[in-house]
């Protein structure tokens, strides 16, 4: 099965079947039928791509309901530590963080459901990240959590003095002060 369930309800790792030969490789990064067979029926409406250099940390971001986004993330070049935090009240994993190495080499993808804050750190010289969203960007519903909130214990695999953080992300609150409207519906 190409889907690996995590201990976080709804959070899954997708490992596509890769066909390699002397010419290179081929894989289906998304196949609606395959996802549907797993019970994942998502209407993706927006694709995003970002290029970043070593040390960049983006996040932890989310959009509040009713504009919350499910995301399917992968790395086109380089390596990142992808991190999510479950912010769904009443979830068995509420307030816990999950991290995974995503790279162009391992071709793993992370399916992040609504109700998670998301971010990543670039641990290679450069990285290009591509992700699909099931809801459009909506500035007024943006929210986030401080990347360096010690209660989350996220291992970004970067020295803090090398971290490149946007001014906007420097202003994000810690988890206990985060304002959101997510409730786990188990």
Protein topology:
Blueprint: E1 3-5, E2 12-14, E3 19-21, E4 24-26, H1 32-37, E5 46-53, E6 57-63, E7 71-77, E8 79-86, E9 97-103, E10 109-112, E11 116-122, E12 126-133, E13 142-144, H2 167-170
Antiparallel strand pairs: 1-2, 2-10, 3-4, 5-12, 6-11, 6-13, 7-10, 7-12, 8-9, 8-11
Question: How large is the radius of gyration?
Answer: 16 Å
The termini sit apart by: 23 Å
Number of helices: 2
The name CATH uses for the topology is Jelly Rolls
Structural class estimated from helices and strands: mainly beta
Roughly what percent helix? Answer: under 10%
Strand residue content: 35-45%
User: What is the total number of structural domains?
Assistant: 1
Main sheet properties: 6 strands, antiparallel
Q: What is the overall shape?
A: globular
Characteristic key phrases:
single chain, 186 residues, Jelly Rolls, six-stranded antiparallel sheet, 5% helix, 38% strand, globular
Please describe what this structure looks like.
- This protein has 186 residues and is mainly beta.
- It has a single domain (3-16, 43-177), classed as Jelly Rolls, CATH 2.60.120.
- The protein has helices at residues 32-37, 167-170; strands at 3-5, 12-14, 19-21, 24-26, 46-53, 57-63, 71-77, 79-86, 97-103, 109-112, 116-122, 126-133, 142-144.
- The strands form three sheets. A six-stranded antiparallel β-sheet has the order 1-2-10-7-12-5, with no helix packed on it.
- A hairpin with a 6-residue loop joins strand 1 (3-5) and strand 2 (12-14).
- The two termini are 23 Å apart.
The gist of it:
It is built from 2 helices and 13 strands, in the order E-E-E-E-H-E-E-E-E-E-E-E-E-E-H.
């Amino acid at each position: 099965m190409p889907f690996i369930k995590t201990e976080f309800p709804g959070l899954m790792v997708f490992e596509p079947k890769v066909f390699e030969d002397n010419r290179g490789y081929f894989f289906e990064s998304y196949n609606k039928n395959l996802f549907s067979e797993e019970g994942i029926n998502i209407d993706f409406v927006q694709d995003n791509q970002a290029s970043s250099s070593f040390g960049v940390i983006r996040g932890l971001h989310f959009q509040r309901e009713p504009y919350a986004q499910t995301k399917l993330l992968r790395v086109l070049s380089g390596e990142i530590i992808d991190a999510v935090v479950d912010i769904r009240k009443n979830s068995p994993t509420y307030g816990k963080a999950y991290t995974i190495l995503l790279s162009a080499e391992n071709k793993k993808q992370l399916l992040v459901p609504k109700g998670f804050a998301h971010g990543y750190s670039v641990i290679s010289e450069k990285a290009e990240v591509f992700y699909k969203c099931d809801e459009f960007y909506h500035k007024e519903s943006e929210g986030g959590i401080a990347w360096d909130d010690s209660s989350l214990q996220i291992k970004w695999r970067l020295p803090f003095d090398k971290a490149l953080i946007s001014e906007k992300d420097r202003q994000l609150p810690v988890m206990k002060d985060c304002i959101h409207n997510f409730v786990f519906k188990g």
